[in-house]
Amino acid sequence: MATLEILEQRLAALEREVAELKAALPRPSTPESPGARMIREAEESHEAVVAAWNKVMEDLGIRGEPIGAKKLREMLIAHGIKPEDNEFSREIIAMREE
Question: Is the pLDDT of residue 28 over 90?
Answer without folding.
Answer: no
